Amino acid sequence: MRKHIHSKIFGSLLLTTALGTGLLGIPNTAQAQETSYQLANAALANLPVENAILTTPPMVPPAIKRKTPAKVIVELEVQEFIGNLADGVQYNFWSFGGSVPGKFIRVREGDRVEFHLKNHPDNKSPHNIDLHAVTGPGGGAKATMTAPGHETQFTFQALNPGLYIYHCAAPPVPMHIANGMYGLILVEPKEGLKPVDKEYYVVQGDFYTKGNFGEPGLQPFDMQRGIDEHPSYVLFNGSVGSMVGEKAITAKKGETVRLFVGNGGPNLISSFHVIGEIFDLVYTEGGSLANKNVQTTLVPAGGSAIVEFKVDVPGNFILVDHSIFRTFNKGTLGILNVSGDAQADVFTGQQSDKVYQAQPMHKPVATTPATPPDQKLMETGKNLFVANCSACHQTDGAGMPGVFPPLAKSDYLMADKARSIGIALKGHSGQLLVNGKTYDGVMPAMTHLNDDQLASILTYIRNSWGNKGDAVTPAEVKAVRAQQK
Amino acid sequence: MFRQVNRLVFQAVLIGGLGLLLQAAQAPVEMVKVPAGVFTPQFSPRPGQKDFQVKSFWLDARPVNRAEFLEFVRKYPQWRRSQVPPLFQEGNYLADWQGDLSLPLPSQEVKQPELQAVTGVSWMAARAYCDAQKKRLPKLLEWEYAADETDPEKLSWYSLVGIGIPVQAGVAAPNQKGIYDLHHMYEWVDDFNQVIMTNDSREGAEKDNQLFCGNSGSATDRMNYAAFTRYAFWSSLHPSYTLKNLGFRCARDL
């Protein structure tokens, strides 16, 4: 049979080549492809046909109930669009389906997947798709090389169960991936996955922009940064704050959560961790090997992991790349919000809170009389705050309960101006008490900011969200800086 | 500088109005003589060879515009939208025109649609147009040589989203070789499919080591993602394709 197909295709190739050469001087293999489609289609004739349900992150399509294989039709449209990397920061994203990561695809082991790739006519570049779930040359890349305004098709059998990355492999490949062209395809094992209460879709990616983290405006792609592997952003689901506040993923106490975690790269390997949780189960690298009781799991670039855990305690649980500068300075931060009553036998919450009498860390600095801050200073301060501070303290200054102390109506902030300047300059490590709650985190030193910039940030935070204080002058910052030396 | 631009536009209008005879007579005037030189393309068409001698040739100073293409289809009815057989165009041939002989209407963004570059033409149509002018499509190597550009500011089009509006003749400054309107859309070249024939960006190792496109190791300049993008685009094409962001200009031997 196979031999027969080959000879048929070969014959047809020869024919079209002869025809094409005669007419145009260009070989044409369209007819040969047509023939092979027909043969492949004949083999699929008896399978039930269904259209794949595709979802945008952080949602996951429903589990597959079928016990037998089907022909599953997947239609993905490549969209190039301008979106937000962060508030006020735009980027030219390229995507599978209009989101970064692209649509989540869910099929069953043994399914024949008829894949349609559509490249919107308004797109600039040719695109294709390499699905790591595909057994075959290029993972489908060659079969799906698609010019703008075109649609290509190929079919593969999902031979191996697992969670796989898919990505664009059109040249320049790293640029296509760096612009957001990746997503996950889950091939459920024949026996299915154990039912859980909640499933979510999270993919990490690194981004290379001309401007540094937080620099506002439309940021062009920076090839040199990409080659140097120095991303300006490292993100979950394509933007800073993609899973915080109202967009946080949720669960109820007692539920089991399964995260389908991918890493599009293009460069970095992720040390995926959820603060305050231990993974009960990790399907390492998205394969069949199940590891138990894992704190942090590696997710390779172009790879994945499935993690499962029961949430026993309510509260906010923070998804991070534990290569931790990426979380605090480049954006890998998401929140799982667990609702329910306290579970004191597992976690009590704070049991005591005493004043700790210690030697003062800084001598008080003479302050100038209060003067109302001018508008321009406030504006500069706001922009710099958003770029440098809001990833942790949040744009509304509310911080994050238990993790990042609030600045809004913060007694600690307002009590001692010189101390606040000192913390901005030198960072902070260890316990501090803000509005009656203890925080025990680390804040990096803002050494990259000059006196003027720090003065404007401090003026802004001391005069926003209900805070009322006097302006901080560059001279005051300079004085504290000198003292620290 | 401004004067020169004006002159070019004026010539374009004049030529569009007076027809092909005059254009044929004046062709070298609005063409630029590209001097001979040695060029190192991003991907070598010949294994083992990096540098290529390019002979001097004439190249249209700017892409063919709609007014000129309209004259062409007036004279050669077989290239009108309703007449071109499917073998020579995939279905969106001159799709933005109002009819066989009527151009798109002016809009807020495009005041003079007749001066915009013509797009949505197949390789066969572009080739026939150049033939009719006693010209030819430039070779890929010639195009890359004439359009060589490293200034990232001038290459930003490749990294931006959307196709943009097809260029208008002579509005932006020319490059060092005096060529206008480069790097604002893609252009047909005669041998567009000579590179990355497999269409798989990373398969080159098997077919031809020189053309291993996804592997920047074989590329001349690993920073030049604009060239990567052009080669990828060309390799995704079939001669019958008619795309919104794909126009052309003609060349001629000395």
From TrEMBL, chain A:
Homotrimer. Its EC number is 1.7.2.1. Cu cation binds at H127, H132, H167, C168, H176, M181, H322. This is Copper-containing nitrite reductase. Residues 376-465 form the Cytochrome c domain. Belongs to the multicopper oxidase family. Keywords: Copper, Heme, Iron, Metal-binding, Oxidoreductase, Repeat, Signal.
From TrEMBL, chain B:
Residues 1-27 form the signal peptide. Keywords: Signal. The keyword Signal applies. It holds the Pfam family FGE-sulfatase. It comes from the Bacteria. InterPro entries: CTDL_fold (IPR016187), Sulfatase_Mod_Factor_Kinase (IPR051043), SUMF_dom (IPR005532), SUMF_sf (IPR042095). The keyword Ribonucleoprotein does not apply. Coiled coil: none annotated. Residues 30-149 form the Sulfatase-modifying factor enzyme-like domain. One of its GO terms (molecular function) is formylglycine-generating oxidase activity. PANTHER family: FORMYLGLYCINE-GENERATING ENZYME, SULFATASE MODIFYING FACTOR 1, 2. This is Sulfatase-modifying factor enzyme-like domain-containing protein. The lineage of its organism: Bacteria, Candidatus Blackallbacteria.
